[in-house]
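Protein Record: Sequence and Backbone Structure Tokens
======================================================
Tokens: labelled as protein backbone structure tokens, with as many entries as the chain has residues.
Question of interest: how does this chain fold, as expressed in backbone structure tokens?

___
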Amino acid sequence: MSNPELLIVGLGPAGLDRLAARALRILDEPERTVFVRTLQHPAAAELANRRSVVACDDLYQSAESFDEVYLAIADRVVAALQSGPVAYAVPGSAAVGERAVTEIRRRVGDRLEVFPGESFLDLLYLEAGVDPIASGVKVLDGRDLPDPLIFDTPVVITQIDRPEVLADVSAELGRVLEDTTSIIYCDRLGDEDQIVDMVPLADLSGREVGPRTSLLINAGPVGWYGLVVTNRILRKECPWDRKQTHHSLLSHLIEEAYETAEAIRALPAEAPGGDPDYVGYAAVEEELGDLLLQVVFHATLAREVGAFDVEEVAEIIRRKLVNRHPHVFGEVIAEDATTVVSNWEMIKGEEKARQSLMDDIPVAMPAIIRADKMQRRAKSVGFDWDDVAPVFEKVLEEVDELTAASADARAGNTGGGVASEVSAELGDLLFAVVNLARHLGVDPELALAGSSDRFAARFRLMEEEAAVAGRPLRDHTLEELDALWERAKSTRTSQ
């Protein structure tokens, strides 16, 4: 295109001396209206000294968001085409990080020509000794970092134009990286006074920033990706890790699950509501890491035989979540949690081709949890009481039946059938109590665990008082033990 109606020019990372001759010649055409996104750039300032330009800096002051700025720039540039040829010049490359350019191209179509220009990234890669293709560099906007931020490749963070942006970026990096991690800090690339420094993360937030400040982080494998990589290295090089199988790791998986549950139980009941218990959360964080290692380790073993990998594990559960939440990702309407659970069980049943709602509930699951799960599945099809009152009545009914069965046993009917009946009635009572807990909104497993904790604490107080008196518990009468128990119950620390 010899004389384009609209010319979009990337001004490069520094002065006009780096600009292509033809692009500069067109920018100098007196009949062409030239817009620059900002004068806060060496080439734009030089251009303004050699000819009249229209700056868009004012739009940054009046708009409430960057998206509004970019749309307003597009409006201004496209509207000017009605009066003659136009050029729009942007810092760096017109093809890198210029959302207004994308919007203008969408509106104008083929009535334009683009000189992409040299990007600051070209200079950054050169200064840092990084091949972006070989290393798979990611380029991110410091004002809108992804969550989670994954360091599986070198990361460039740009648009760090204000101290508060640098503070936010530093805080986000600090969630995963150590304070001693070296960060490549770059500013004014291409100028004679350019800055390229290695800065420890701990000192990063104190550096000055401007419109041309960027960072490059080449931290190596850390975070989620680092855990996967480290586990694979250990599997190859550590004698203990090399000898593990799925079955040898099973006890560790169960142990870590219980330790995680214990840490979670220590959090306030309303967590994450209320005031955060950061000490408690630190324990949960550590235990979740131990549990996550078990997931990654089993995936590493499965990868060795080509069964699946950890990414496939994550993707399978992601697809399940999407499929089982049609009220979020589809057209289904679910106005309450009960409907969500009902839909979940129906969809899960279809996925697993269940013959019964009672299918695929593990027999090895703790009995209280298994009973609760069965009852919740039954509730999903409406088989449940609507009110708690009949549940209380059912518990009392089961108490009466257990009392009768126990009386028969004590009357001398000691056959195996009577003993089995007592066991069955006791099981029915426990099942009914689990049902009651569910209707009261109480986790029966946690409730029983709490009672066990209180019993243990009070019993320790009894032992301590007996030790102080110089008489072990076994030397006390039942009445004396009851008195010790009542004193322990009244002690605040035992509650």
Q: What stands out?
A: The chain has four domains: 6-118, 122-220, 225-323, 446-494. The chain is about 55% helix and 10% strand. The chain has a mean pLDDT of 90. Residues 446-494 form one domain.
